[in-house]
Design goal:
Blueprint (H helix, E strand, L loop, with lengths): L8 E5 L5 H11 L3 E6 L3 H9 L6 E5 L5 H15 L4 E4 L18 H26 L2 E6 L14 H20 L5 E8 L2 E2 L1 H14 L3 H10 L7 E2 H12 L10 E4 L7
Parallel strand pairs: 1-2, 1-4, 2-3, 4-5, 5-6, 6-9, 7-8
Helix pairs in contact: 1-8, 3-4, 4-5, 6-7
């Protein structure tokens, strides 16, 4: 299905070396054009790596929490490609950890500014182009922590922000559905990639055990016995960007190898 996204333009926010890059690569692999945005300059290197000639990509530094950046991004997409068919929201502040008592609830303002407010306002800015597409799609990236608390890795503030997006997706599926725009959520749980690997290695070092000893009990809870990868999650996201999901909206697809099973 190399032409699954032929002629379509997909905007990926938070296009760093993990899931964002995997989504952009998946879009290009299936014949689409990708807009790579990130608040760090690394996005330009990722763009050149994925599309050396720059014929099917636009890479730009954007802070989704900044209104002028959001407006410029949408204007640049229209100027470059003349259309926008899907927006994938990978951009997130995910460094906040801990619970209510021992965590950093004061991080909420920073986390929510990107994960919730920035995400929703970028969606709003993109609505006119998505509506013009005729089959517009918005994909939020959720988090297993929002519905499956793990005492080993408490992430209250981050989990709340991602839970808010699931609620928003339900409401937006009705509001934007009237404009022909679908809104869905793809939720990884333990997804193997730079962020998870770093967190597990940090826990192994802090507790004086090996990485295998940290991962073993987690893998024991996963039906398939392996972590989902960035590419696994990206494939699900690409599905929601494609015409194959044209009658699906307001849904949450969990990509976890069968860990939650409900």
């Amino acid at each position: 299905m190399t032409d699954l996204l032929a002629g379509r333009v997909v905007l990926v926010s938070g296009c760093g070396p993990g899931l964002g890059r995997a989504v952009a690569a998946g879009v290009l692999r299936r014949g689409g054009r990708a807009v790579l945005s990130d608040r760090l300059e690394r996005v330009h290197d990722i763009g050149r790596e994925l599309d050396p000639a720059g014929e099917r990509t636009l890479a730009t530094v954007v802070d989704v929490a900044d209104a002028p950046d959001r407006e410029r991004l949408v204007a640049d997409v229209e100027a470059r490609f003349g259309r926008l068919d899907a927006v994938v929201h990978v951009a997130a502040v995910d460094v906040s950890s801990g619970g209510l008592v021992d965590g950093r609830l004061d991080d909420w303002d920073e986390v929510a500014a990107v994960n919730v407010r920035g995400t929703l306002l970028l969606t709003a800015a993109a609505v006119p182009l998505l509506e013009r597409s005729g089959e517009g799609s918005v994909v939020f990236v959720g988090a297993g922590a929002s519905r499956h608390p793990d005492a080993r890795f408490p992430m209250l503030t981050y989990a709340m922000s991602k839970g808010a997006l699931v609620t928003a997706a339900w409401h937006l599926s009705k509001e934007l559905g009237a404009r022909g725009i679908r809104v869905n959520t793809v939720t990884p749980v333990y997804k193997w990639g730079p962020a998870l690997e770093a967190a597990l290695r940090e826990r192994a070092a802090s507790t004086g055990v090996t990485l295998d000893e940290v991962t073993a009990p987690i893998l024991a809870d996963i039906a398939l016995g392996r972590f989902a990868t960035d590419d696994d999650v990206a494939d699900a996201i690409v599905f929601f960007c494609s015409p194959m999901s044209r009658s699906i909206t307001g849904q949450t697809l969990t990509v976890d190898g069968g860990q939650l099973l409900s």
